[in-house]
User: Which sequence fits this backbone?
C-alpha cells in the first residue's frame, strides 16, 4: 500500500523548514502551483547545476573513448503559435477528461482508478464493512448503515446514498472490499472518487496554457508545454554558429506549463514545473546505439545523486502508450512513497526519429537537414557512386531525447533523504548526499557571549566563499543541531570555551552524530575532503 504517512510528513517538513510553499498561499493558493523557499531553491539549483555540469560542461565519454559534443540553450517560453501546430501539440496534446455531474470536479479518466485509493468516502465505507473480504448479507447491511449515516456527508452524490436497489449497493461495496484488501481494480465504472456522483463520458482536454501577445489585435499564443521544441527550432542556428558536427546534443533547463486536469501528489504533477531536457542529433543508422548509450548514462546520473539503485528501474513503453512521434521510449521510474511498492515516472528517454525536424521543416519551409562532410569523404573513399554519396551524405538527423523534470528531481531527493531516527530530538533527518545539501555547513557559537560570536563570525566569513554556510547564534545548541538535521546539513562547526584557549573547534557529523576536535585553521581542509 502507498505510504501516505511518510508523504504527509515530507510535505509538512517542506513547509515548516522553508523548502516548498503553496503558491499565493495568503489568497488561498492556486492548485498545481508551488513556490520554492530559501532551502528549496538551493536544493533545486544544486541538482540543476550538477545536471548542467554532467551534460554540458563535462559531458560523458562516448563509445569511441572521447567526450561527446554538447552545447547549451535557453529558448523563449513563448514561441510562434505555428510551432505547436507543427509539433502536434495544438491538435493532439490532450488528456481524456471526465466531469462529475454532482460536484462538478474534473478528473483525468486514466487517473480515476488511482484516486479511488485515496478517496475519503471509499475509505470510510471500507472501514465500515468489517473484516470480511467477500460480499455477504452482513457486509451489505453495514454498507447500507454507512450510507444512511456518514455516507450522506462524505458521498452525497453516490447513487446508493441517494437510494437505489441492492445490486448497485453490491457494486460499490465490492470496491470497498477490494480497497480493504489492497487490490482495488476499477474499469471505468463512472463513479466520482470525490463525492460518489456520476461521471460524464471521457472527452479530450488540451493541456496547453494559452495567453495573448500584442496590444492591438492580440495574437493567441501558448506557454510552452515542454522545452524541447525550442531546441528543434534552433537546430539550424546552432549548426551555423557553433563548431558542432553530428552526432551532438543540445541541452536546456527551464520552465514549462501544462494545464493538468488533476495536479496531485505534491510537486509530482503540477501545472508549472521545470525541466532538464537534451536532444541528441545523430545519423539514423546510429540511433539505436545512442538510445542504449543514453539509457545507461541517465540511470548512472540518477545514482550519482545518491538515489538507491533499489528505488530505480527501467520500464519500456508498450506500443499502445508510445507518443505519436516515438519509435521507442523507456521511463526511468522511482519508488515514491505514494506509489510504493510500485514505481512512478521520473525521466523519459525517447527515440523520436526524424519527426520533429521533418515537421518543422515542412511547416516553416526551411531546410533542417544536415550535410555530413565526413561521411561524404568516407563514401567516396569506399568507391560509392556519386548518386549514393549525394543521397547518404545529406539527411535529417534522428533524435534521442532524455527528458526529466527538475522539480520532480527535487521531490525524489527529498523522499530519498527522509530518514526517521527516534534517537534524535528531531526524530528524523534528511540524509542528502553532501554535494546536494542546501546548506553544507552550520557555524555556531556555543553561547552568544564571551568572545565566541566574534570567532564564529570570522570563521563563517572565511568559509562562505568555499561552501554554502549558515551562521546561527540563536536557541540552545541542541535545537540548532536538530534544525540542521531536519534540513539535511552534513556538518556543524561549534565554537566553544575551549576554542578560546587552544584554537580548536567541534565538528559534528550529521549521519553518525559523532564529534571531533579540529584546529580552526584546518576546518576548511577537513570539510573540503568530505564535501
Assistant:
Amino acid at each position: 500500500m502507498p505510504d501516505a504517512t511518510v508523504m504527509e510528513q515530507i510535505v509538512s517538513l517542506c513547509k515548516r523548514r522553508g523548502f516548498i510553499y503553496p503558491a499565493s498561499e495568503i489568497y488561498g493558493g492556486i492548485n498545481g502551483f508551488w513556490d520554492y523557499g530559501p532551502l528549496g531553491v538551493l536544493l533545486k539549483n544544486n541538482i540543476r547545476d550538477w545536471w548542467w555540469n554532467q551534460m554540458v560542461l563535462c559531458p560523458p565519454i562516448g563509445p569511441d573513448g572521447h567526450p561527446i559534443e554538447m552545447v547549451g540553450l535557453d529558448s523563449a517560453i513563448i514561441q510562434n503559435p505555428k510551432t505547436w501546430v507543427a509539433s502536434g501539440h495544438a491538435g493532439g496534446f490532450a488528456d481524456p477528461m471526465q466531469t462529475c455531474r454532482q460536484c462538478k470536479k474534473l478528473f483525468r479518466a486514466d487517473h480515476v482508478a488511482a484516486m479511488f485509493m485515496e478517496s475519503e468516502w471509499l475509505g470510510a465505507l471500507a472501514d465500515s464493512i468489517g473484516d470480511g473480504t467477500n460480499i455477504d448479507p452482513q457486509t451489505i447491511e453495514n454498507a447500507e448503515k454507512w450510507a444512511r449515516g456518514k455516507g450522506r456527508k462524505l458521498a452525497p452524490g453516490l447513487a446508493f446514498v441517494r437510494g437505489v436497489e441492492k445490486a448497485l449497493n453490491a457494486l460499490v461495496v465490492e470496491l470497498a472490499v477490494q480497497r480493504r484488501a489492497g487490490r482495488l481494480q476499477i474499469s471505468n465504472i463512472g463513479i466520482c472518487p470525490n463525492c460518489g456522483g456520476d461521471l460524464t463520458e471521457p472527452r479530450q482536454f488540451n493541456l496547453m496554457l494559452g495567453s495573448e501577445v500584442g496590444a492591438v489585435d492580440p495574437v493567441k499564443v501558448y506557454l510552452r508545454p515542454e522545452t524541447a521544441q525550442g531546441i528543434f527550432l534552433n537546430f539550424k542556428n546552432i549548426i551555423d554558429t557553433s563548431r558542432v558536427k553530428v552526432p551532438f546534443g543540445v541541452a536546456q533547463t527551464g520552465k514549462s506549463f501544462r494545464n493538468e486536469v488533476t495536479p496531485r501528489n505534491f510537486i509530482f504533477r503540477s501545472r508549472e514545473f521545470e525541466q532538464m531536457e537534451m536532444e541528441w542529433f545523430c545519423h539514423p543508422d546510429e540511433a539505436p546505439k545512442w538510445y542504449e548509450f543514453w539509457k545507461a548514462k541517465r540511470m548512472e546520473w540518477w545514482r550519482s545523486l545518491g538515489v538507491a539503485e533499489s528505488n530505480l528501474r527501467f520500464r519500456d513503453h508498450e506500443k499502445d502508450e508510445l507518443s505519436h512521434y516515438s519509435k521507442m521510449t523507456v521511463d526511468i521510474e522511482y519508488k515514491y512513497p505514494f506509489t510504493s511498492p510500485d514505481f512512478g515516472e521520473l525521466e523519459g528517454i525517447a527515440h523520436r526519429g526524424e519527426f520533429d525536424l521533418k515537421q518543422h521543416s515542412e511547416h516553416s519551409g526551411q531546410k533542417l537537414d544536415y550535410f555530413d562532410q565526413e561521411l561524404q569523404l568516407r563514401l567516396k573513399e569506399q568507391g560509392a557512386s556519386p548518386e549514393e554519396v549525394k543521397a547518404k551524405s545529406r539527411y535529417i538527423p534522428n533524435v534521442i531525447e532524455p527528458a526529466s523534470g527538475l522539480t520532480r528531481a527535487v521531490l525524489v531527493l527529498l523522499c530519498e533523504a527522509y530518514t526517521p531516527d527516534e534517537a534524535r530530538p528531531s526524530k528524523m533527518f534528511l540524509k542528502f548526499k553532501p554535494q546536494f545539501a542546501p546548506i553544507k555547513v552550520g557555524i555556531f557559537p556555543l553561547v552568544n557571549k564571551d568572545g565566541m560570536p566574534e570567532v564564529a563570525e570570522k570563521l563563517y566569513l572565511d568559509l562562505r566563499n568555499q561552501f554554502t554556510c549558515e551562521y546561527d547564534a540563536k536557541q540552545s545548541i541542541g535545537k540548532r543541531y536538530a534544525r540542521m538535521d531536519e534540513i539535511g546539513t552534513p556538518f556543524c562547526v561549534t565554537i566553544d570555551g575551549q576554542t578560546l584557549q587552544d584554537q580548536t573547534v567541534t565538528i559534528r557529523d550529521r549521519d553518525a552524530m559523532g564529534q571531533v576536535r579540529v584546529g580552526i585553521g584546518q576546518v576548511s581542509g577537513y570539510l573540503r575532503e568530505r564535501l
About this structure: The CA atoms of residues 1 and 400 lie 35 Å apart. The first helix runs from residue 4 to 17. The mean pLDDT is 90. The first strand starts at residue 20 and ends at 22.
